Amino acid sequence: MRNLLLLSLLAVSAASAQSLSVGVIGGAPFSDVVNNATVSGLQTVAKSANFSLGPALQVNLPASLRLEVDALYRPYSFSLASLGSTQNVSANQFRFPVLLQYRFGSPVVKPFVEGGLSFDHLAGLSAAAKSIVSGPGALLHQSDASIVLGAGVDVRIPFVRLSGELRFTRQTVSNFQSISNLNQAEVLFGLHF
Fold first, then answer.
1. pTM of the full predicted structure?
2. What are the angstrom distances between the C-alpha of 157 and each of 58, 107, 162, 163, 193?
3. What is the dihedral of CA 125, 130, 131, 132, to 10 degrees?
4. Which domains does the chain have, with CATH numbers?
């Protein structure tokens, strides 16, 4: 009886390990968080370091579905120049995408498509970001929700799974008046255990 109980616990542990994976995901956006533009005599220059990085949690579901939840960090920076004065605005953007993925293909190579929502927040706003109270560059929203669509491929090698994907995110509101880039596309690579 005791051996049967031990064998059952090992089987449940193995099944849980196959249905849950943790990892790290990172990549590079194709565009900055703000547009380079001149609006009402105010020139905006995007200066963000273009990378995203963070942990990923995936839960395998029945019918070739998988739930993925990420916590991505991205630096946010731009300058606003008008009439000889320049203000440097910076913040930390945190994105929390919750995605439903559909996987198809062989056990080793599995292409997937995904869709879901991302809950985004700007933290650590510089004093310059808070000092612009109206007009282009004024802070409108620190938090927002975004719609996310993507496609990619998983490759299983011994002990790990590698993934690569293209992900498109559409913000529902602007963070900064007249200059926010609402459409973001990025390439992401992941390492999952």
1. 0.85
2. 17, 10, 8, 11, 10
3. 110
4. 19-192 (2.40.160.20)
